[in-house]
Structure prediction request, 294 residues.
Amino acid sequence: MDRQYSIGELSVLSQIKAHTIRIWEQRYGLLKPTRSEGNTRYYSEQQLMKLLNVALLKKNGVKISQIATLSEQELIDTAAKHTTSGTSKSTAIEQLMTASMNFDQTTLSKLFNTYIGQYGIEETFEEIIFPYLKIVGNLWVNGKITPGHEHFFSNMCKLKLFSVIDQLPNIKELKPHILLSLPEWDYHELGILYYNFLLKKAGYPCTYLGQAVPAADVIQTSRTVNAKYIITTFIGPTTEKETKNYIDSIMKSLTDVHMYISGSHVLSFTNNHPKRLTVFMSIDKLLQDFRLKE
Prediction:
């Protein structure tokens, strides 16, 4: 079934004001929404894609009056020419959304390479990829995109990060060893994989276990590699009790390890946690702490 979007959702995705979208409808007939019994506008997925192409051309300096004269195919073809050329942060949402909705792996890979070449890996992820993922997450929760769209984009990001991490130089054990993993119910891997990249780049030896790791495996691996720090995030669906039990089991078994935790499920730990447990709510806070420990 074709998904429907409100004018507010189109405005968020295209970064074009709802008032402007209405004017373009009336003046140029760019979009033709259906209306509910209460006269509320609803737009199809096809019309969303059309508006994203319009927004992309508009941000690349093409006048709306000129865009309005293009046929449907001409609009698609003209926008495609701008998809991997002249990239900027202002057009990133439209570019990423268009490629992701079409499951266009080739274009998405080119966009990643272009962004990274232009802004570097850190600025690309922190100012383009992660903000875009917040939009994707909201769309997924509200049923506006399929889980497949979210998984496709996230996995493309992970592949790029793994490739970048693989190119980092080998690290000598001059700094304390860090173990990174997610609890056994959590599969939201991209954030902690990015932490792994940042810490390895900063010269820390890291052991990366990834998603869905039972506490017993964290404990055993930590002892084997002699980890001094454990970093984990709690994003997936769980309870406060389950989270607390997971953390307690690790900390009671590893008495010489400091644990860094993050996520909405650990906010209650902020004002009441042992000295060996640190709650961090931003990348900057995490990196600042580890720079201070050098």
